[in-house]
């Protein structure tokens, strides 16, 4: 029996200096930093999470910031573009805000929608699009009000080394083909946000992991039982899938699809208030139990960072 995901749970990327990362995603884009922790597989590096006021699935972008690391190359085998959704009528606000922060952008039309396209300071490709769908984001910060705040992901554009095989997999994950335009095939899930996936049919050359590239895209599972069903299902499709890994704020399984993009399936619960209150999320360094004994050392070695207002 075919399974269906509601859409994107989170997207994880590699970036440069952590303060530059925070300044852009919190300071410019107005997302809430909902968690400051470490890479569970490399605890000498931060793992930073940004999303809406509650850090709900479908709103979360996460980062491994490596200061002075080598730049990557966006290409086949990666998420090429990460798309955010803003309320209807909000694009002009965002154009003005990007101009104030001297962020170059361009506008393009795709599938009847207008996109504002730009890059973050480390080269990650981003875009904004207006849609009615998705809950209002009640997080306000430094001139960004709820009527214009980013609601979460609109979706993503996948750069696959085997586009039609990736398309087949999306259909096997419950997404429906809803259109074709120029070089893109569009798929949509049943979720309210993070639900529109474009696959680029032409090749861009092999991507290389590094600063300014997406590490993986995660899809939503309802809970632990649903995730175990997904694990069996992915295995039945012929993909090598990992054991369940505890990421504190969700459980995760991983596999690499035929187009070489690393996919994760992550549980919606427990969420980011599991180890601190909703009101204080993101303010303190949170560590998993296995690294708590190294807190003092990590506080000395990790680069000091803060969320700060940038508007003058």
Regions with little confidence, pLDDT below 50 for 5+ residues: none
CATH superfamily: 2,3-Dihydroxybiphenyl 1,2-Dioxygenase, domain 1
Radius of gyration: 18 Å
Reported by name, the CATH topology is: 2,3-Dihydroxybiphenyl 1,2-Dioxygenase, domain 1
Tally the helices: what do you get?
5
Number of domains: 1
Which architecture does the CATH hierarchy give at level 2? Roll
Q: Topology as H/E string? A: EHEEEEHEEEEHEEEEHEEEH
Portion of residues within helices = 10-25%
Average predicted confidence as pLDDT: 97
Based on the model shown, name its key terms.
312 residues, alpha+beta, 2,3-Dihydroxybiphenyl 1,2-Dioxygenase, domain 1, 16 strands, 16% helix, Glyas_Fos-R_dOase_dom, Ring-cleaving dioxygenase
Account of the protein in words:
The structure is a single chain. The chain is built from 5 helices and 16 strands. It is of the alpha+beta class. It has an 8-stranded mixed β-sheet with strand order 2-3-4-1-13-16-15-14. Strand 14 and strand 15 (251-256) form a beta hairpin. The mean pLDDT is 97.
What secondary-structure arrangement, pairings included, does this model have?
Elements: E1 8-15, H1 18-28, E2 32-39, E3 42-51, E4 60-65, E5 78-86, H2 91-100, E6 105-110, E7 113-119, E8 125-130, E9 152-159, H3 163-172, E10 176-181, E11 184-188, E12 196-200, E13 213-221, H4 224-236, E14 245-246, E15 251-256, E16 262-267, H5 295-301
Parallel strand pairs: 1-4, 5-8, 9-12, 13-16
Antiparallel strand pairs: 1-13, 2-3, 3-4, 5-9, 6-7, 7-8, 10-11, 11-12, 14-15, 15-16
